[in-house]
Amino acid sequence: MAAPTKHAKRWIWFLDVVFGAIVALGIETYEPVVREAWLQGAGPFALSVFVAIAIFSFVVYDIAAYHKLANTFPYCLTSLGFIRFYLDLVMAFTLYILLVNALNPHPDWAAILITVSFWHVAAVAWHLLALKEHGAVGSMVSAVCPHVLFIGIYWASVLLADALGTKVFELDSATLSVFKLVVVSATILVVSIVRWNQVVRKNGAQSPVRTRPQRANPASPPAPETSP
Description:
Elements: H1 6-40, H2 42-72, H3 79-102, H4 109-133, H5 140-168, H6 173-203
Helix pairs in contact: 1-2, 1-3, 2-3, 2-6, 3-4, 4-5, 4-6, 5-6
């Protein structure tokens, strides 16, 4: 396995630029939306702000967790390292789609649910690639299971909201859609906070994974470990 290089570290800088652009575009897009929601009354304004806070919290979690994980599992100039970087770009674009769905005058709960679920699937793939690249497959379960669990929680929350809305509260279709939007957004907000604490606490004190260069001669002394 190749050791991390300065060139590979620049991939993180590029992702930072992409993240910054996504957040800037999201804020720019949302400004006229929240103004219009304010003019429509307290209800639409509160709903719009709540959904925006929930989704932006997810974006903040992703950016913070990404930097912790990229430090723990640094990129290497290998095929797996490049695939991980490409997957990072796909996940960043998914975040943009998530913001576009959430920060419009009429957010679609179904689009938000599908998009955030896809992001977690991509996160599972990212973890598997990182563990394979750094030879740390022993922690595969702890890396993959939370994302699978969160996807299940998202969909279970929607099913529960649908059951409550139709059978208990007997809501009409429009009100039921708003109810599902609130439930999905609240679930994403809780997951963002919980997962942010998990990742930061777990990886905050960890050093970058060390790589061992291959020895050219079995009889020669072992090469020292290197870290980025």
